[in-house]
Each structure stands twice: as structure tokens, then as C-alpha cells.
Design goal:
Blueprint (H helix, E strand, L loop, with lengths): L19 H11 L4 E5 L2 E4 H17 L7 E5 L4 H12 L3 E4 L6 H11 L3 E5 L3 H10 L5 E5 L7 H11 L13 E2 H7 L15 E7 L7 E6 H13 L10 E4 L6 H12 L4 E4 L5 H11 L3 E4 L1 H7 L15 E4 L6 H13 L6 E6 L6 E4 L12 E2 L4 E5 L13 E6 L6 E2 L3 H7 E3 L5 E11 L5 E6 L4 E3 L2 E3 L1 H10 L3 E11 L3 E10 L7 H11 L11 E4 L13 H11 L1
Parallel strand pairs: 1-11, 3-4, 3-5, 4-8, 5-6, 6-7, 10-11, 10-12, 12-13, 13-14, 26-27
Antiparallel strand pairs: 1-2, 8-9, 9-19, 14-15, 15-16, 17-18, 18-21, 20-21, 21-22, 23-24, 25-26
Helix pairs in contact: 2-3, 2-7, 4-5, 8-9
């Protein structure tokens, strides 16, 4: 007889049959005067928020965007980015979410891959995005947002003066438009009825998937709404209009968008939007705004504990502190829990585990329990199994195997990649669809899950996934490089930093100048977090019996040498 934990089958609860916008509108109907978001001190309530969304939706209709069209959002955490997301959703269009610090050539890729008709970005990124559009095949129109348009009056005036914004000629290309003008342009447009289809893509997020190659992950309204309900149940308190969440994780990331924005907004709580931050400003924001919930990657918490900003501060207003994006070491968890106790927060830091293929977290440490090294228990309606890698053959409790999961947040699939979708989403003999994570772990007798290692080759730096093969491909294009190998090495702050071992072509000198030359070569092709932080030249690299570079040997060497 199978253990009942492993023999569980999904018990699906009913989820609201509405869109992401529809769920936010329901929150507005419940809490019309509650604050939806706080941006640099400017407060916007739910009634105003929904009106802004609908005005922007009309603007998109006026400019030819219709159901099924894709629009890229290349923004930090600002009101325009959030409003744009829901405005597109209101008319059935698809939000293609990308990092605003993406390299120019990567933005071109995202535009072409998604076939986006427009792209929203900040004025500070306009020139880069314009160059990316010029190289793309889409002829996408650029919508330019300005930070000062969303600042409270005193700050907005100061910002304009400091940046000399009156003289900024953005946008300066025919067909491009200011965000404020787009919003005003659709006053006479009639909004269509809201149409819900649980198998329709609402958002595209990007990840290396389970094989390490760049993929667009198609996620539905149901995926996000189900996540919002799941997370609200495990918060430890009733998530409502009295709650505040520090939304610092970026909106182009499943963690930031799924939990930091959508979960909060469909429950009537307040998002404190933080477009960019340093450890010092983050600490000051926590003290000033007194959020009830904060979330971040282990790197963030590592840095926070080293600042003096919290000395003597009472943090009893915190009721939920969550860590995700990378494994939280037992040592860091101990430090975090002690830090919270020492500052009058009677809670523990709670680790989450998940993939963008299921939006974000699907397994979280319970509010009142924890086991050393465990990533917690699966969320409602989500079932985990441990299997022989690549099969449905279940392992016994305590035995290591591949982590697979099923539930209401599983992606629809990878954009334009049926083969990889079929490898990652597989249906068992009972007709249940499972996500094969490519991660190894085990489960104990109480149902707690333990993540041990990744099957796929990947570096996690400051919470971002970096795939060595992608970085190697770029470095190998450099005319001075013969071949290379990229690995992640331990780093006190980032958890891992990127190191490249490079064999140069004959006659190329191994100098500091050559290292800088290679780094500069990489910048147009790689996002900032993918740049190699260290370069080490070698006469040759270790090889396997079949002639491949033995990256494991280099990893072991780096581990031994510290």
C-alpha cells in the first residue's frame, strides 16, 4: 500500500471564472476607498486605480491593440507598468514582461519572439529600446512613461528640475507616443465585455525553462488568480485592505508580479511600489512605511542584516517575511529568525520554492512550523511527488528523485515551443498533467519537501537564474577567444557570482586589458546580471572522455580553493 502522502490526488477547489482585471475589479467593489498602491508617497485608491486601468485600455483600443495582440512591458515597479498590465488584460491583449535593464539585443529578441505591436518603457531607457526596435522585425511602436508623471507634486517638480525634463525630446520618433497621451487618447472608445477563457494566455514571462535555453512562459488568468487565493490562505492573517506589502521584487519576475502585485491587489491590500532600491533605501522604506509583508531573495536579507538602519527599531508590524528565488541556507534562516525576534517581530522567515512555469512559489514553509533544510509544504490544490528522473515512477519517502508537481498554477506551455512543452508538462495514466521541474529532492513522512540540487546546469546570482551555456555562447563569439567555460562560485553577497575560464587564441596576450575587452564585448548581448564578474585565463581546460569541457572539475576546484 502506498504512503497516503505520495498517493494524494489533486482536490481542485473552484476558482473565480474571471480575468486578472476582473479579480482586481472585484476587490475594488469590496474596498472602493482602500489604497491600491503607494508610489513615493502618492496614494491611489482602488476606485481611482480601476478608472486609470480602463482609461489606458481605451487608449490601447484607440491605437489598434485588440484581443490576442501582444504588448511588451519593459518597466520597473512603477504605476504605469502595473496599470498597463491590467489595461491589456481588460481588452484581452497579452502582456509580454521583460527586464528594463535587458541588453539591447535581448529586447530585440523579446519583441520578435513575441511579435509585440507596442512596447512600454521609461524615458531613461528610450534610446536603447528605440535601437532594439530598429533592429527588430516588428516595427513596434514605443510608449514612453516618465517617472515624474506619477510623483506627488513637490517631488515631481523637483524631479523635473533635477533632470531638466522640460528639454527632454522623448519620444522623438514618428509613431511613438507618451504614456500620458495614450491614456488620454481613448476617451471615446467603448470597452468590450470581459471575456474569460482559462486556456488563454494573459502574461508571458521569460525563463531558461528546464533545459537552460531562453523560453517564453505562457500563463493564464486562472494561473495568477489561483496563486492569489493560495497565497492569501497561507499568510497567517486575513489578507485585506488593512494589509501593506512592500512590492520590491520586479514585475517582470513571477515572484514580483504573482505575489508582490497580483496577490495583493485581488485581496484589497496595499502595494508599496519600489522601482529601484539599495540596501539602505530598502531599510529606510521598511521603517517609514511599516509594511506587514516583505519578500525578497536570500541576497537581500543577507545585506539587510549587515546594515545599521534597523538598530533599535521595532519591527512588530511585520507579520510575514518570505524568501524565494534561491535556496535559503539553514545558517541564514537562523540569522533571519533571530533578527526578527530581536526586533520584536514574533514570526519566522518563510521559504518558498517554485518555478516560473507555475508562476512562482508552489511550496512554502508553514506559518507556525519549520524543518531544517525544508522548503515547506505544497500550497492548496498543489501536489508534489518525488520520482525517478524523467519518469512517473515514485520514490519512497526519504529517497531522492526529481521533484514534479501539479496544480492550478501550471503554465499553458512555452511560447512557440511544443517540443520543450511536451518534455516539461507530461500527462500521467490518470490524465493528470505534471510539471517536471528538473530539480532533485525528497519528501519526509510529514509531507515536507526538501530541495537538494538541480539536474539542469544553472547559476543563481542575486535571485536571478543564469544559464552558463548562454554566457559561454556569447563569450565564444569574441574574436580573441578560442573556447571557454562558465561556472558559478560562492559569493558572500550574491550567493553565487559568475566566473569565466577562457582559453585565448594563439598570440592574444593574457592581460587585464584583455579581460576588460571581453567583458565589454559581452555587454550588448547579455543582461547585466549575466555579465561575468571574474575572468580567469587558462592554457587549456579539463575535458571529459568524450572531449567536452569538464565543468564539474572546475566547480570542484573553485569549491576547494574558496
Amino acid at each position: 500500500m502506498k504512503d497516503p502522502i505520495l498517493d494524494r490526488t489533486p482536490q481542485i477547489h473552484p476558482y473565480p471564472e474571471t480575468t486578472m482585471f476582473g479579480a482586481v475589479e472585484q476587490a475594488k467593489n469590496t474596498y472602493p476607498k482602500a489604497i491600491a498602491y503607494d508610489f513615493q508617497g502618492k496614494l491611489t485608491n482602488y476606485t481611482e486605480f480601476v478608472k486609470l486601468i480602463e482609461n489606458a485600455a481605451r487608449g490601447f483600443l484607440k491605437h489598434g491593440i485588440k484581443k490576442g495582440d501582444r504588448v511588451t512591458i519593459c518597466m520597473p515597479n512603477t504605476p504605469q507598468g502595473v496599470i498597463c498590465l491590467y489595461a491589456l488584460n481588460r481588452i484581452g491583449a497579452v502582456a509580454n514582461m521583460v527586464h528594463p535593464l535587458s541588453a539591447q539585443k535581448n529586447i530585440t529578441f523579446y519583441l520578435d519572439f513575441s511579435q509585440s505591436k507596442m512596447i512600454l518603457t521609461m524615458d531613461m531607457f528610450y534610446e536603447k529600446v528605440k535601437a532594439a526596435v530598429d533592429e527588430s522585425n516588428t516595427n513596434a511602436r514605443i510608449i514612453v512613461a516618465r517617472i515624474q508623471d506619477e510623483l506627488p507634486l513637490p517631488l515631481g517638480v523637483i524631479y523635473r528640475f533635477a533632470k531638466n525634463s522640460k528639454n527632454m525630446k522623448f519620444p522623438d520618433r514618428k509613431g511613438d507616443i507618451l504614456w500620458t497621451d495614450l491614456v488620454k487618447s481613448g476617451r471615446d472608445e467603448k470597452l468590450p465585455a470581459i471575456e474569460y477563457n482559462e486556456n488563454q494566455t494573459a502574461v508571458i514571462l521569460y525563463s531558461g525553462g528546464t533545459s537552460g535555453k531562453q523560453k517564453g512562459i505562457c500563463l493564464s488568468d486562472k494561473n495568477f488568480n489561483a496563486l492569489g487565493m493560495q497565497i492569501s490562505e497561507i499568510c497567517g492573517v486575513n489578507l485585506n485592505d488593512k494589509c501593506k506589502f512592500l512590492s520590491v521584487m520586479p514585475i517582470f519576475h513571477g515572484f514580483g508580479l504573482g505575489i508582490g502585485i497580483h496577490t495583493i491587489l485581488i485581496n484589497g491590500a496595499r502595494c508599496i511600489l519600489v522601482p529601484q532600491f539599495t540596501t539602505d533605501t530598502y531599510a529606510k522604506t521598511v521603517i517609514k512605511k511599516r509594511p506587514n509583508f516583505i519578500a525578497g531573495v536570500p541576497t537581500l536579507y543577507q545585506a539587510l542584516f549587515e546594515t545599521d538602519r534597523f538598530r533599535g527599531q521595532d519591527l512588530s508590524f511585520l507579520v510575514g517575511v518570505f524568501s524565494g528565488g534561491d535556496a535559503l541556507s539553514p545558517e541564514l534562516k537562523k540569522r533571519a529568525d533571530k533578527f526578527l525576534r530581536d526586533h520584536n517581530a514574533d514570526i519566522q522567515i518563510r521559504e518558498g520554492y517554485g518555478l516560473t512555469e507555475c508562476v512562482t512559489a508552489s511550496c512554502v514553509t508553514p506559518v507556525d512550523r519549520a524543518k531544517v533544510g525544508s522548503i515547506g509544504l505544497p500550497l492548496r490544490d498543489t501536489v508534489y511527488k518525488i520520482v525517478e528522473p524523467g519518469t512517473f515512477e515514485e520514490k519512497k519517502l526519504g529517497e531522492h528523485g526529481e521533484i514534479i508537481l501539479t496544480g492550478p498554477t501550471l503554465m499553458l506551455g512555452y511560447l512557440n515551443n511544443e517540443e520543450e512543452t511536451a518534455q516539461t508538462l507530461r500527462t500521467d495514466e490518470n490524465g493528470v498533467k505534471w510539471l517536471f521541474t528538473g530539480d532533485m529532492g525528497y519528501m519526509d513522512e510529514d509531507g515536507f519537501v526538501y530541495f537538494k540540487q538541480r539536474i539542469k546546469r544553472m547559476i543563481v546570482t542575486s535571485g536571478y537564474n543564469v544559464y552558463p551555456s548562454r554566457v559561454e555562447e556569447v563569450i565564444d563569439k569574441c574574436p580573441d577567444v578560442n573556447y571557454c567555460c562558465v561556472i558559478g562560485v560562492k559569493d558572500h553577497y550574491k550567493m553565487q557570482k559568475i566566473r569565466a575560464y577562457i582559453v585565448l587564441n594563439e598570440g592574444v596576450p593574457e592581460t587585464a586589458g584583455e579581460k576588460e575587452k571581453i567583458k565589454e564585448f559581452c555587454k550588448p548581448y547579455l543582461d547585466r546580471y549575466e555579465w561575468p564578474k571574474e575572468i580567469e585565463f587558462r592554457d587549456e581546460l579539463p575535458k571529459t572522455l568524450v572531449g567536452k569541457v569538464a565543468y564539474h572539475t572546475l566547480e570542484e576546484e573553485a569549491e576547494q580553493n574558496g
